[in-house]
Amino acid sequence: MFENTSEELAVNKLLLMYILNRIEINLTNSQITQVVMENDFMNYFSLQQFLAELTQSNFLKVYKEEGKEYYSLTKKGNQALEYFLSRIPLDVKEKIDIYISKNKEKVLKETQIKSNFSKISENEFIVNLKVIENQVPLINIDLNVASNKQAKLICDNWKKNAPTIYGEIIKLLIKK
């Protein structure tokens, strides 16, 4: 995409910060990789190196939640991006903006709607359902169900319908 210079390295790092800034949610490594690879911005190995360097320099921070690592832009990263934003070519910014507008809803579902289950005994499974916004749980439900099949079905339905179900639960709970 660019010549292999220090300018290219800086622009690629800014590009990663721009993606996190524009999508406005924290992303896993695989989600960032998907954005970068689908748009052919850089190769996988450079991407991983840049993420590590941005994290070491405190432009990005990494936190773990439910066994996954999420990247977020730090205040220092936001300031650097603001200052050097003009170094990212306009066509690249437009490409990112278009990609995000088409895919943000899907990514939101992946990162903010969570469901999993674990086996307690032969006929007992605990299902955990969550909706998270800005790293704060809006709802966190644990259900005890009798079968693996029920647990899987509940998890699948939650992933597909969490906003509607959450809304219905709130309506029922505040009903007089």
Task: Walk me through what this model shows.
- It comes from Tepidibacter formicigenes DSM 15518.
- The structure is a single chain.
- With 176 residues, the chain is of the alpha+beta class.
- The chain folds into 2 domains: 6-88, Orthogonal Bundle (Arc Repressor Mutant, subunit A); 112-174, no CATH class.
- It is built from 6 helices and 6 strands.
- Strand 2 and strand 3 (68-73) form a beta hairpin.
- It starts with 5 loop residues before the first helix and ends with a helix.
- The model has no long low-confidence stretch (mean pLDDT 88).
Structural classification: alpha+beta
Mean pLDDT: 88
Radius of gyration: 20 Å
CATH topology of the largest domain: Arc Repressor Mutant, subunit A
The profile of the biggest β sheet is:
3 strands, antiparallel
The number of helical runs is 6
Count all strands and give the number. 6
How many separate domains?
A: 2
CATH-level-4 superfamily name of the largest domain: Winged helix-like DNA-binding domain superfamily/Winged helix DNA-binding domain
CATH architecture of the largest domain: Orthogonal Bundle
Estimated share of beta-strand residues:
15-25%
> What global shape is seen?
elongated
Instruction: Give the % helix.
Output: 55-70%
Distance between the termini: 60 Å
CATH class term of the largest domain: Mainly Alpha
> Low-confidence segments, ≥5 residues, pLDDT <50?
none
Protein name: DUF4364 domain-containing protein
InterPro entries: DUF4364, WH-like_DNA-bd_sf, WH_DNA-bd_sf
Pfam families: DUF4364
